[in-house]
Design goal:
heterodimer, A: 116 residues, mainly beta, Immunoglobulin-like, 4-stranded antiparallel β-sheet, 10 strands, 0% helix, globular, B: 111 residues, 6-stranded mixed β-sheet, 5-stranded antiparallel β-sheet, 11 strands
Chain lengths: 116, 111
């Protein structure tokens, strides 16, 4: 597609339930990042994928968070047993090169997760 | 962790004035990027400056980079009401291989 697509755009879930957030990056982009942003805050790095290399999971806040990227394309971020502090906007970005080349990263519109 | 810090946190100016936002970072970088965010959703890439560059222009945007001070500035000239948004700097460290964002500057341009 022309841009990074994320779904759903909004998700309301009950505390304790599992959620899956999807990111469809730009075709051909080898680097894919997940960030989250709490209200009025900056972006918190979660995880990144680069080609077929092992992902950098150093930003995942707990073992309730996991992510995978199938076939080097679509990525899914899974949050198990959601807590209220997980409420945030989850942003996905992709780039042709991990260094961002001359074009930086292209971000999706995000998934706003609300845990009630 | 967020290594970038931006100031001011909020800036309010009149249309036509220039807006300057500053960013500091902590570790050595490959490049530094500026992004814009409207309404707390997706970010839009504005400009990238490499560690061996000192200044870069793109339209009404001017970015400077001082690696000795680990700082960068974004200047928006002749601001417009449509420039109202949050602006974030993001540093890329080759060793960490991730983009680290600052806390952002909320710019309001009054018509």
């Amino acid at each position: 597609g022309a841009g990074v697509s994320q779904s759903p755009s909004n998700k309301v879930t009950e505390k304790g339930k599992d959620v899956e957030l999807r990111c469809d990056p730009i075709s051909g982009h080898t680097a894919l990042y997940w960030y989250r942003q709490s209200l009025g805050q900056g972006l918190e790095f979660l995880i990144y994928f680069q080609g077929n290399s092992a992902p950098d999971k150093s930003g995942l806040p707990s073992d309730r968070f996991s992510a995978e990227r199938t076939g080097g394309s679509v990525s899914t971020l899974t949050i198990q047993r959601t807590q209220q502090e997980d409420s945030a906007v989850y942003l996905c970005a992709s780039s042709y090169r991990v260094t961002g080349s001359n074009y930086g990263y292209t971000f999706g519109s995000g998934t706003r997760l609300t845990v009630v | 962790s967020q290594q970038g810090e931006e100031d001011p946190q909020a800036l309010s100016i009149q249309e036509g004035e220039n807006a300057t936002m500053n960013c500091s970072y902590k570790t050595s970088i490959n490049n530094l990027q500026w992004y814009r965010q409207n309404s707390g959703r997706g970010l839009v890439h504005l400009i990238l400056i490499r560690s061996n560059e000192r200044e870069k222009h793109s339209g009404r945007l001017r970015v400077t980079l001082d690696t000795s001070k680990k700082s960068s500035s974004l200047l928006i000239t002749a601001s417009r009401a449509a420039d109202t948004a949050s602006y974030f700097c993001a540093s890329f460290s080759g060793s960490a291989r991730q983009l680290t964002f600052g806390s952002g500057t909320q710019l309001t341009v009054l018509p």
